[in-house]
Amino acid sequence: MSESLDSLGWIDGELESLAARDLARKLRVRGGPQSARIDLDGRELISFAANDYLGLAGDRRLTGAVAAALAGGWGAGSSPLVSGRGRLTAELELRLAQFEGTEAALVFSSGFAANAGSIAALAGRGDAVYSDELNHASIVDGCRLSRAEVHVYPHADCERLQEILSQGQAYRRRLIVSDGLFSMGGDLAPLGELARLARRYGAMLLVDEAHATGVFGRLGRGVSEHFGIEHDVAVRVGTLSKALGGIGGFVCGSRRLIEWLVNKARPYVFSTAPPDAAAAAAMAALQIVQNEPERRLALLAQAAKCRGRLEAQGWRVGASASQIIPLLVGEPARAVALSESLIRRGLAVPAIRPPTVPAGQSLLRISLSWVHTPAMIERLVDALAAEAGKGGRGEGEKGGREDASATGLPSGG
Description:
The protein is an alpha/beta fold. The chain has helices spanning 10-20, 60-69, 80-83, 87-100, 111-122, 137-146, 158-167, 191-201, 223-226, 255-264, 266-269, 276-291, 294-312, 332-344, 374-389, and strands spanning 30-31, 37-40, 43-47, 104-108, 128-132, 149-153, 174-179, 204-208, 235-239, 249-253, 324-330, 347-348, 351-352, 362-367.
């Protein structure tokens, strides 16, 4: 192709710029099932990279449910509003509503679609959305798609959020949106205070429980249950792809909310319905969450112990209070070098860099799972002790942030 016709020629320079700043990403190939041990690009590693918090992604009860469901076919054919959603998907929605203690539920093709579609359906021109600056990319994009006036408040800063809420009274509708468990920092949102502000200012409250479903709460329903404020959360979003080990997303709430989303959530209306086999896996996972609470209890206890040991080594783990443990090292080069060093030790711990996190706040993200054995965690802690001895902790600078609207992208380094 001649240079004059190469309309994508600019990409080369941009990719070189990313590489020079240690911000380039590369795809890898995982062989075999997802588990605590994985084959990554032909090398066996102990993985602390996945969101498979309860170890269900490779559970034979899920794969058995999928195999049985495949007898009824695979593809859905078109949008659920055109050719219908599958029987098992409809059953899953009933099960999700029962599990979450809500009137109804709606299954989306992904958690990203559930967030983006719900926000854009609930708010539009003339409305206001109030979003934590470290919310997930699906929330960020949902805010953009809504065309509402978006107010980004500092992370977990309810005093500042109240100031912003008190300054704007002329909006048609107002929506407060937050992750329940933040996917990079591992910290919990101040949902009790968010619920109080939603009540005071007549705002809807949407909580994304993606990383908390199955892990937090007496029944495993998430951080909203953990803090006892479920009745104040108008819109509860979750995913089937993390602790539940499958694929897809969902929204739970009142019947009128679900009816509205069926009519107005564009990612739902204009996406092909997910296969019923995915719903079969999700129902099997829900049953395990309900029958085996010891998984989440053991996971959180194991995470607390691991955090304490890493802090004792001098690592900065921020405000993590969950199975997600960040090691704050500062600059991308430090994060990449530390991740690569751990890979040489047989451990997969991803480096997370801008724009997934703000500039100056690159980190390693340790994601613990119920299937990690004490020996595996001991190996990780010992390796990090050796890295700390080499000065690998970094400074964990809190440098200049990027525009908050560009942060909160999904974990992928």
